[in-house]
Design brief:
Blueprint lengths: L8 H26 L15 H27 L4 H23 L15
Helix pairs in contact: 1-3
């Protein structure tokens, strides 16, 4: 058991990074194993509806089509098995940020950044 009052900030940040990574990995595994793939109806899916795409380009130009495709891609990140990958990626980035902050933190005894944690 870590004693929080005696542990350095660097050790706390490394521990927080490990907890975030472990929680993200277990959460993404649970999501991946319990959720199925997205089932789309081709008759109502607007991405393959040529009239919808034509109208988008007619009224707003190519940028409007790009913006709509980006919006639909971003919305798909939060559904189905893509959600598991998104959770894993977000937790890895957050964990890496905490570990990087801990690595570059100047130690309490005046050592250089990255000298290991006490």
């Amino acid at each position: 058991m870590i004693r929080w009052k005696k542990s350095s900030l660097r050790a706390r940040l490394y521990l927080i990074a490990a907890v975030i990574l472990l929680a993200g990995l277990s959460g993404s595994c649970a999501i991946y194993l319990t959720i199925g793939d997205i089932q789309r109806d081709p008759t109502t899916d607007l991405r393959i509806n040529k009239k919808y795409m034509h109208d988008l380009e007619l009224y707003g130009g190519k940028f409007n089509v790009f913006q709509d495709q980006f919006r639909q891609w971003f919305a798909d990140l939060w559904v189905g098995k893509q959600l598991a990958l998104t959770v894993l990626l977000v937790s890895a980035v957050l964990s890496g940020g905490c570990a990087l902050a801990a690595y570059h933190l100047v130690s309490d005894d005046g050592g250089k950044p990255g000298d290991g944690y006490q």
